[in-house]
Design goal:
There is one protein chain. This protein is of the alpha/beta class. 54% of the residues lie in helices and 15% in strands. The strands form four sheets. Strands 6, 7, 8, 9, 10, 11 and 12 form a seven-stranded mixed beta sheet that branches. A five-stranded antiparallel beta sheet has the order 2-1-5-4-3, with helices on both faces. A five-stranded parallel beta sheet has the order 14-13-15-16-17, with helices on both faces. The protein is elongated.
C-alpha cells in the first residue's frame, strides 16, 4: 500500500497529465474547425482572379490555425526573385522586408526553398517560420510568419495542416496561371486549337489534382486526429479505472466528454463527405422499434436528467413494433435531434412522440416528433437550419457549440428513408418541435403487447407530470388499470380507497425522488400495512447531478431507470408480476464476468500510447498479450510461435499492416498452417481503407478510438471456438455440471439465498436480519391463511395469499410465491376447491423453507456461506 506521503506527487502527476490532454484536445479542436471550413476556403480560392486575392484568402485560415505577430506572402517573379504580395499588418512591410533580406543573407531563405515543410529560424530575439509555396511543377512563392515573443515552436499537427493549406494555395495559383494561358490562347488564331487542347488537358489534370488533394486532406486529417484521439480516450478510460479523488475524477471526466464530443464532430464530417460522394448506403434488417427507442432513450435520459429536465418517449398504440429498415441510422437521427433539444433547453421538458403517418399493406410511414421547451428558433432562421455549417446565429454557436453539420446529415438520412424533415417554432421561449418522417417495411408482429398487463391494477407515484402521464398511457396500452398520483400521501389514500372497495393494487411504481415523503418512507408504509402487499418498483432518474447511483432497498422488488418503455415491461415487470424473475438491482456497471485466460493475442501497434491503451483494455479479460512495434516483427513473431488471434495496426513503419497480413497468409499456405484471425486497427475511417484490409487477408476491421465492448465483441466473434469454450467463464456447462445443476434446481426454486443476497447488494448482516424477521412472522401469517380457507372465506384467503406471495418472493422463494399466487387467483375467483388443495402444499413447502433458512443462518454465524 502506498504511503500517504506519495499523494501530493501522484496528484501533481495526474494534474500534469490532465493539463497535457486538455491542451492536446484544444489543438485538435482548432484543426477540426479548420477542416470544417475547408469547403468555404476552396470556394473562395475558386473565385479569386489574381494572386493577391488568393494570398488574402489563404491568410485567414493560416492565422486561425497559428497565431502570428506579423506575416507576409511573397510571390515568385519570372526572373527568379521574390516580391512581397500580401503582408499583415499593413505597417509591417519594411520590417518584414528587413527580415527577408536577413534570411537571404544567412542562407535560411534558400534552405527553406529546398524543403517541402516548415522551417523555424531565430531572428532578432523572435522566431520566424518559413514555408515554401510550391506545386509539383514549380515554386510559386514563400510564406514567412513571425511568432509571438513567448513562442519558439509549433505543434506538429498544426505544421502538417499549414503545409496542406499552403499546398492548396499553390495549386490555386497554378490553376489561375493556367486559366490565364487558356484565355490568351482562346483569343488567338484558329491554328492554336491544338495547343489550346493540350492546355485544357493540363488544366483538367490540375483540377483533378486539387480534388485529390482535398480528398487526401480529409483522409489524412481523419487519421491525424483519430490517432491521438485513441490515446486520449483510451488513457482517460484507464485513468478513470484507478483510484482518483473527487476533483481529479471530475477533471478526467471533463476531458473524456470533450474528447467524445470531438470524435462525434469528426464522424459528422466523414458522414457528410460520404453523403456528398453518394457513398452512404442504408442497411435493411428486421428490428423492434421499441427496442431501438429504449436504447436511444437511455442515452438522452442521462443528459436530460443531469440538467433537471423531464424526458418522455411516447409511441401511439397504432404504431407497429416489428419493422424492416436501418435501425442505426434511425437512432442517429433521433439522437441528433433529441440531443439538440436537451442542449438548447435549460428547464422544462423534452418529449419524443411517434405516430403513424401512413400505412400501406407492406410498408408504413412513421412520424417522429421531438418537442422541447427551450430557446426556440426564429422563423427567419428556420430555412437555414438544414444547410451545411449553418447556425441560428453566432452567439448561439459560441454558447452551445457545434459545427452545424448534424441537421444537414439528418435531412439527408430522412430523405434516403423516403421521408422529410422540418421544424415548428414561433421563435419565442416556448421551444421548438423538430419532426421527420421515414418509411419502413412491415414484419409480422410477435405476440400481443396489449395483453402484457391485462387484469393488473397499477399505481404510479411520480411528481413529474409529463413523465407520469406517459407511463400511465403506456401501461394502459398494455391492458392495465392505472391510477397516477403525484404525492406519497395521495398514494396511501388511493390504496386505502381501493381496499375499502374490495380491490388491491398488484404493482406500485414509485419515483425515487418524491415530495414531502421520500420513496423509502412510502415503501415502508406500504410494507408495514399487513392488508395489502403489492410488488413495489423504484423508478430512478439517473443524472450527473446525483451524488451516487440509486440503489434498491430491501422493500422494493426491483429498480428500473426512467423512462420506462415497453421492453422494460416485457423483460422486468411481466415476469415480476408472475413470480418468474429475479429482481434487478439498479443499472450500475456490471463487473467483468467474462474471462479469456490462456488465450494468446499478438498486438502489432507502433504508437506507444495506443499500444498501452489496447493492452490495458485486454488485460482486464485475462488475455495473454505479446506486443510488437511494426509489421515485420509481427510476421516474425507469428512464424516463430502460435497465437490465437492477431490485432494489426494498418499504418506502421518498416512494414505496414496489409503487407504484413499478406506475408502471414503466404507463410500459412506454404507451411500448411491453419489461418489465424487478423483484425485490423486503424484511424482511417473510409470505405476504401476497410476494403484494402479485407483484400490483404485480414478478417475484420476496427476503427480507432477503440471501445472495450466493441473490441471484445469483435475478438469473441473471430476467436477459435475451442479456445473460447475453454477460456470464457460463461461457456456451456459440462455434463457433470448440468447434472449438478438439475439436482440443485429444486432447491434454488425453494430458496435462492444467493439471489436474495445479491438483491441486498451483498450485505449479509441485513440479509440475515430480514430472514430472521421473516421466520418470526411467517408461521402466524400461514396459520391465518389456513383459518380463512377452513372457514370458507375465499376472498379473505385470496388477500392473505397475496401478502404471502410478496413475502415469499422477497426472500427468494419462487416456488412458494407461485403457490401463493395460485391461491390468490383462486380466492378472487371464489374457488374453495383450489384453495383447499393448495394450502397443504404451501404449508409443507413453508416448513421446508424454514429449515433451509435456519440452515443458512447457522452457516452464516459460523462463517461465510458457500456461493
Amino acid at each position: 500500500m502506498t504511503g500517504s506521503g506519495d499523494l501530493p506527487d501522484k496528484t501533481a502527476y495526474y494534474q500534469e497529465r490532465i493539463e497535457f490532454l486538455e491542451e492536446t484536445n484544444r489543438n485538435y479542436v482548432a484543426i477540426l474547425d479548420l477542416l470544417a471550413g475547408s469547403g468555404d476556403f476552396q470556394a473562395t480560392l475558386g473565385k479569386a482572379a489574381t494572386s493577391t486575392e488568393i494570398y488574402r484568402a489563404t491568410a485567414e485560415p493560416v492565422q486561425n490555425l497559428i497565431h502570428f505577430e506579423r506575416f507576409t506572402f511573397l510571390d515568385s517573379m519570372e526572373d527568379g526573385s521574390f516580391q512581397q504580395q500580401v503582408w499583415w499588418p499593413e505597417s509591417q512591410y519594411v520590417a518584414m522586408q528587413q527580415a527577408i533580406d536577413a534570411m537571404i543573407h544567412d542562407g535560411s531563405f534558400a534552405w527553406a526553398l529546398n524543403r517541402s515543410q516548415a522551417l523555424l529560424c531565430p531572428y532578432a530575439g523572435q522566431t520566424l517560420l518559413l514555408h515554401v509555396i510550391e506545386t509539383r511543377s514549380r515554386i510559386r512563392g514563400m510564406f514567412i510568419g513571425c511568432l509571438p515573443p513567448d513562442s519558439t515552436c509549433v505543434d506538429t499537427a498544426k505544421l502538417n495542416a499549414l503545409s496542406m493549406i499552403l499546398s492548396t494555395c499553390a495549386y490555386a495559383l497554378e490553376g489561375m496561371t493556367l486559366s490565364a494561358v487558356i484565355r490568351k490562347q482562346m483569343e488567338g488564331l484558329e491554328e492554336q486549337v491544338a495547343e489550346r487542347t493540350r492546355d485544357l488537358v493540363i488544366a483538367r489534370e490540375a483540377a483533378d489534382s486539387a480534388n485529390q488533394a482535398k480528398s487526401e486532406f480529409l483522409a489524412n486529417m481523419s487519421h491525424e486526429i483519430r490517432t491521438p484521439m485513441n490515446g486520449v480516450l483510451g488513457m482517460i478510460g484507464l485513468l478513470l479505472d484507478t483510484g482518483l479523488d473527487e476533483q481529479q475524477r471530475r477533471y478526467a471526466e471533463t476531458v473524456q466528454r470533450s474528447a467524445e464530443t470531438l470524435l462525434e464532430l469528426i464522424n459528422d464530417i466523414l458522414d457528410l463527405s460520404k453523403i456528398e460522394a453518394d457513398r452512404l448506403l442504408l442497411e435493411t434488417a428486421d428490428f423492434d422499434l421499441h427496442e431501438t427507442l429504449a436504447d436511444f432513450s437511455t442515452l438522452i435520459a442521462l443528459s436530460a436528467h443531469s440538467k433537471g429536465l423531464e424526458f418522455v418517449c411516447r409511441v401511439d398504440e397504432a404504431v407497429p413494433s416489428q419493422l424492416n429498415g436501418d435501425a442505426n441510422r434511425l437512432r442517429q437521427i433521433l439522437i441528433n435531434l433529441a440531443g439538440n433539444a436537451v442542449k438548447f433547453t435549460d428547464r422544462g421538458l423534452v418529449a419524443v412522440h411517434v405516430t403513424t403517418e401512413q400505412r400501406l399493406p407492406e410498408r408504413v410511414v412513421l412520424r417522429f416528433s421531438i418537442r422541447d421547451s427551450g430557446i426556440g428558433v426564429p422563423p427567419e432562421k428556420q430555412p437555414l437550419l438544414f444547410n451545411k455549417f449553418s447556425q441560428v446565429d453566432s452567439s448561439v454557436s459560441r454558447k452551445y457549440g457545434g459545427t452545424g453539420l448534424g441537421l444537414a446529415i439528418c435531412k439527408k438520412l430522412a430523405e434516403m428513408m423516403d421521408g422529410t424533415i422540418g421544424v415548428v417554432s414561433d421563435g419565442a421561449t416556448t421551444g421548438a418541435e423538430f419532426w421527420f418522417t421515414a418509411s419502413f417495411g412491415l414484419v409480422a408482429e410477435q405476440g400481443d403487447d396489449r395483453q402484457l398487463l391485462a387484469r393488473q391494477r397499477i399505481l404510479i407515484v411520480d411528481p413529474q407530470q409529463h413523465e407520469r402521464a406517459a407511463l400511465e398511457e403506456l401501461c394502459r396500452q398494455c391492458g392495465a388499470e392505472v391510477t397516477g398520483v403525484a404525492l406519497g400521501s395521495d398514494a396511501l389514500q388511493a390504496m386505502e380507497e381501493a381496499f375499502a372497495a374490495g380491490l388491491v393494487y398488484d404493482l406500485v411504481l414509485i419515483e425515487s425522488v418524491l415530495l414531502r415523503m421520500d420513496s423509502e418512507a412510502l415503501c415502508r408504509a406500504i410494507r408495514d400495512d399487513g392488508r395489502m402487499a403489492p410488488q413495489l418498483v423504484k423508478l430512478a432518474r439517473f443524472g450527473a447531478n446525483e451524488t451516487e447511483t440509486p440503489t434498491v432497498s430491501s422493500c422494493f422488488s426491483t429498480l428500473i431507470a426512467k423512462p420506462l418503455l415497453l421492453p422494460a415491461i416485457r423483460q422486468v415487470l411481466v415476469p415480476l408480476l408472475h413470480g418468474q424473475a429475479r429482481p434487478v438491482v439498479g443499472t450500475a456497471a456490471a463487473c467483468v464476468s467474462e474471462r479469456f485466460d490462456g488465450v494468446r493475442l499478438l498486438l502489432a501497434e507502433d504508437h506507444p500510447i495506443n499500444r498501452q491503451v489496447a493492452i490495458g483494455m485486454l488485460q482486464k479479460y485475462g488475455f495473454q498479450i505479446q506486443a510488437v512495434e511494426n509489421g515485420r516483427e509481427a510476421v516474425d513473431a507469428q512464424a516463430q510461435d502460435h497465437y490465437d488471434l492477431i490485432l494489426m495496426d494498418v499504418q506502421m513503419p518498416v512494414m505496414d499492416g496489409p503487407e504484413a497480413a499478406r506475408a502471414i497468409r503466404y507463410h500459412e499456405q506454404t507451411c500448411g498452417c491453419s489461418p489465424v484471425p487478423i483484425i485490423a486497427l486503424t484511424a482511417h475511417a473510409m470505405v476504401a481503407d476497410k476494403q484494402l484490409c479485407l483484400e490483404s487477408g485480414m478478417n475484420d476491421y476496427l476503427t480507432k478510438p477503440l471501445h472495450p465492448t466493441q473490441l471484445l465483441e469483435t475478438i469473441r466473434k473471430w476467436l477459435p471456438a475451442q479456445e473460447q469454450s475453454a477460456s470464457v467463464a460463461t461457456a456451456a456447462p459440462s455434463l457433470t455440471e448440468e447434472a449438478q445443476s438439475a439436482e440443485q434446481k429444486a432447491e434454488l426454486e425453494l430458496f435462492d439465498y444467493q439471489g436474495f443476497l445479491s438483491r441486498m447488494l451483498g450485505d449479509r448482516e441485513l440479509t440475515e436480519l430480514i430472514l430472521r424477521d421473516f421466520l418470526g412472522h411467517i408461521v402466524e401469517e400461514l396459520a391465518e391463511l389456513k383459518q380463512l380457507v377452513d372457514s370458507g372465506n375465499a376472498g379473505g384467503a385470496g388477500e392473505q395469499a397475496h401478502k404471502l406471495k410478496g413475502a415469499f418472493s422477497n426472500v427468494g422463494s419462487n416456488r412458494l410465491s407461485a403457490l401463493a399466487a395460485r391461491m390468490e387467483a383462486a380466492g378472487k375467483a371464489g374457488d374453495p376447491n383450489v384453495l383447499q388443495q393448495t394450502v397443504g402444499d404451501l404449508a409443507a413447502g413453508c416448513d421446508a423453507l424454514q429449515m433451509q433458512i435456519l440452515k443458512q443462518l447457522e452457516q452464516g454465524s459460523s462463517g461465510p456461506a458457500a456461493s
